[in-house]
Write the structure tokens for this entry.
Amino acid sequence: MNSESFLERDYFYPRTGRTYFMRGKRTQWNGINAHVEYLLDVTENRNAMRENAKLTQQLTLNQLMYEVAIKSSGINIWEYDIQNDSLFVVSNSQRIKQNCFHIENYIESTIKNGYVREDSIATFRSIFTRLQNGEREITEDIWYKTTDELGWWCERVTYTACFDENGKPLKAFGAGRDVTREKEAEKKFYEEMSYREALQSGNLASIKINLTKNLVI
């Protein structure tokens, strides 16, 4: 060890169950070579560090399990900042374009870019107005443009708001699932019911048209 070298390490004493941090330094003191040592009981600190490492590892595993569960369930998860109109994607969603995980000015940018179908815009806007007004939980069906932008799909979204100590709404956690097939089946059912009602009421007529001669036969 040279005149400026340090030795730093932990020592565990089994008889006491305590851990000590030792720092030693070789130096010159009044022309005499000396070795100065400093001992500090760091038992609680080291135990806390080990416990923190275990917790961090467990949190990492829990997060991985959560992500796997979310992906396999097909549920989309996000966080919405009510005061700043910002959306943070927690798990990837097919309605979030280009893997954008933080969207500023979320309401207007989503509408302006044509991602919300015309007949869903009013409902889409109302969700965030109701959140700002302090509504705790909101569920609505919204039609969004598909990723390839060739069609539309329906997502059933649920927002659960969080408040500060004064009752002011700060943010909301959102969850959504694809209900397109359900909505299409529902539409088909009502169309079938309307058709049956028309048959029963006698309001349905059958005609033949000759398109070549432009005549009703």
Q: What stands out?
A: The two ends are 112 Å apart (CA to CA).
